[in-house]
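TA notes. Do not distribute before section.
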Amino acid sequence: MLKTVGTLGCAGLLLAACTVVAVPVPGTPVPSGGLSTSLPPNFGSRNINAGFLPDPLAFSVISGGTVSGSGAFGCSGYFSAAPDFVVNYSAGGLPLTISAISNADTTLIVRSPFQTHCSDDARGSLNPSVTINNPPSGSYYIWVGTYGSPSTHPATLTISELGR
């Protein structure tokens, strides 16, 4: 069972325009809903240290899949079972922003070391973005999904400490 503990980056009053932050309720297992952090990432992984350049880093991915995000941490969209990308991050003092850009309506799940973040329709567009203030060092599992129905589309995953 997950407990919503707050929202980040809300635009207006629409929940779909918010990034939901959820953490497991103590003593309960984290549901996978078909998503697995034990599968190898579809598009690779990267070790990143704070202060990385260039900023933002950009990676080509394919969004979407057949796994409903509603069973996976209660997030919108459809995803592949395996994470699309894994970032092993050594933190510094800056926030970490993870975004996806596509011509399709795209969603995002970021499983950070201690929280799960969901995003749909951030920054006034159909593209998702998650900003984590004071991000801890550790592995960040990233799924890029599509909203509405199981489908796949080309997308660009970006990682920034400068909010780009």
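Switch to the second chain here.
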Amino acid sequence: MNAALLHSLKETPSRLELWDALLQEAAPATMAEVGVWKGDFAARVLERNPGIQRYYMLDPWANLPDWNKPANVAPEEFTEIYDEAMAKTAFAQSRITVLRGRTKEVCHEIPDASLDIAYIDGDHTLRGITIDLVQMLPKVKPGGLLTGDDFSRTPWQHKAKFEPTLVCPFAVYFAEAMNLPIYGLPHKQFLIINDPSRGFSFTDIAGIYGDLSLNKLHPDQVPKKKRL
């Protein structure tokens, strides 16, 4: 991945345009998306990147009793969401493999070291991002990209009643454990290059991450306790 390109991503006005630029440079033939939801991201990627020969779509599309996040909607809503995702990506049906289930349940159907890019946008809790990164890294080719969304500087991305979002800093610590370089990109994106020969480094291209210690959060980011 071209370092100059990564630094140029700071000028992209949105997440989608950032990914347009990244995919144009990377030119992947195989890609997986963990957390497809209604299929908008998948449809855009497939439409704009005809060189992608196989696109894996991983998502339970189901109400999960142990997942405390706003997107954990009622079962009947997930039926509609799944149908919408399938309709939006139907034009590329021959290039898609749908894996309906949690990452740990279905990722074995992706051959090891077969993906040019894996994009994680599913369960952003500490448990979820741990499982997704650990399970998906072996699926990425040497030199390929393990990337994701919701690399949020604050754990309190949603209301305090929901489980915190801990993609950041966990993705950084994971990259350090695996001895891989990681980039903090604009629009709450991260990118890990699967190349241990480069060693661990964290490059804050977005220029917003600073000290990743959880106790260094700005006081306004911490939910206020209710008075008894």
